[in-house]
Amino acid sequence: MQISEILVFLKNEGIPYTFCGNEAENVECFSSLVHYKPGTFTWVKKQETIPGGFDLSSIVLAFVSENVEGNFQNVIRTSESKRAFFSTIEHFYVEDKEQPAIGQYTYISPKVKLGKNVRIGHNCTLDGDITIGDGTVIWNNVSILNHVTIGKNCDIHSGAVIGHDGFGYTEDISHKKTMVKHCGGVVIGDDVLISDNVCIARGTIDDTVLGDGVKIDNLCHIAHNCILEDNVALAGPCTLAGSVHIHKNGYLGAAAIRNQICIGEDAFVGYGAIVVKDVAPGQTVVGNPAKPFVRKKE
Questions:
Q1: What angle separates helix 81-93 from helix 3-13, to the nearest 10 degrees?
Q2: Hey, what long-range contacts does 207-214 have (CB within 8 A, 24 or more apart)?
Q3: Nearest residue to 129 (alpha-carbon basis) of 117, 111, 114
Q4: Which residue of 83, 162, 281, 284 pairs with 268 in a disulfide if CB–CB is 3.0 to 4.6 A?
Q5: What digits encode the pLDDT tens for the residues 144-178?
């Protein structure tokens, strides 16, 4: 494949870049920088990731961030180097594995409505008033129950549980606990990733809501009545207690969030943080309890 084919693809994808080198040069497949294979293209994330003594001129084609310097033969510079590199791999080299429309031992109740090109794996249960949008893929051993709406082109990995009642109870004078019957549902937007063994509880009265483009890593827990707006990302294992509201583009790294907390737009919650107070838009918080991150002066 010639480099020119990659450049045409990046242009069609709307990824901004500049290129320096010979567009007619051939590349064969891809490799990592640490285990670079002659003749392949690779990604240089940042200057400090370049192995000591590595001859950058040996790389046939490098995708690099704008601040990476070196003696490259052919180089694609872009502010979206990670997206450009992995999108190129996926477009030219990754073939989607064909999945049957409905796997073995899967139960789908009569009220379920499936869109076009939906794929459901083995040993799944879809039981309730459930709607699945076009192109969504559900992998193996997934349970979706009660009132759930899932949008288009979502990817739901094995072991996910969506729509069970959450953890809520009333308590009498002797501390006997009676679980609250939930009547809400779960509403999930388009292009949402729900990874392995994620649990999403239905709302008590209103719905638990995940907006478009939300990405949830393995082993995350989302309690009843949580709202995750568009393009929120949770790195596992995150725990959200009830009625947490995360605004657009919020990012959480293996954090625990107290109930009824608000995480502002574009906020960043560091790995392992325990959040007990609201986080302002654009703010970064870390620690236990989580506090605003202040970079020390050199």
A1: 110
A2: 207/147, 208/184, 210/186, 211/248, 212/151, 213/189, 214/188, 214/189
A3: 111
A4: 284
A5: 999 999 999 999 999 999 999 999 999 999 999 99
